[in-house]
Amino acid sequence: MLLKCRDIMSLNTLKKMKLIAGESGLERVITWPYIVQTNSIEKWIFGGELLFFSGLGLDCDFNSLSDLLEEAARKNASGVIFLPNEQMNSKLIASLKSIADRLKMPIFELHRASIIVDITKEISNKIFEGENRSTLRSQFLETVCYGSPENINQLLNGINLDLKKPFQVAILYIDNIGTYLERLNMKNPGSATKFVVFYRQVVESIVDRYGEKLLTMYKDDYIYLAEQIATEQDADKFAQKLEEICHQINIYFKGLDVYACIGGTYHYTSISSSLLESERSMQLLKRMKKKKRVSIYEDLGVYQLFFHMKDSDLIQLQNQWIGKILLYDEKYGTDLIKTLDVLFKNKMNATDAAKELFIHRNTLNIRLNRIEKITDKNLKDPDTLNCLLFGVLIHHYLKRMQINN
To answer: How far apart are CA 394 and CA 152, in angstroms?
Structure first.
């Protein structure tokens, strides 16, 4: 279990500390104790820091302390411990309650005579212990995906798993990490790395709420989760958990878009196949404008076939089936491929397709007649329609995967 603001109130060195406000933020994860030495902290913290503010040599008026809380919340600090002095007394600290409650930022008051070195040492030790306990699940998943099966039994001693049950792997990915970090002014070298470390710890904390059977693994800013799936009901519950986890992450990091892609269900000896399917699903779906919070590999339909084909073969089939239409669109600036795409999406209902394209039904018929002339095919022929449909699907797949002719 990772250390949270709620936990520090029971530490030996902080038993006399008082919670002043921000109770709804006590689940915030603590990554490190940080002693504030400037009024502005935005450039110096990256998320999860527990801030100690004594106010020595700094501005301690209401507005300055309010700005401190706003910056702390904006940079996802875990909480603020105030050590009062003559300028920053208990009454002034208590006046921050409405702001801290609004920001869900826990603020504490600690007696000034407290020994900060002992406090930060105990907090650091607790953080280290929590990180060590959370690595076992990660080691197991990494071993079954990439490692040697001989090490499995040794890792199972600390994890309650039945290897007869199959597994399903999901990947959590951030869709807008660049713009998110830029909005927080995290432009310095190393900022992204420090944020990812904090992000992992927060996700680990959220995952812990859903039981110990969820396995975790990390790769850059990707987080892999796996669970044993024995029935369709288990699969539905896993998807629901992922939906809730993504939602909780989005709440914690306001403006950060996190999505999940789920692979198929496999025995632990083939779990890497589920991982690969989750990654393939992610590669395709992250390029789509409209995304579901949780996507399942099996729902990709015919796109699953394309993953198993060579790029050169897909390009050849695209050119064979719709190549002439693509060249015509490029030459004359028409939208014949889009017309076919919308027609297929509307199950060949010309009236609905024309409505979605914002054109008259007669205009749609003119476009379809033009396609017949270009391809020298009859659109009433089922085989022709099937070839055109697969050609359009391959075209979309190649564009999303950024594979060019």
So the answer is: 41
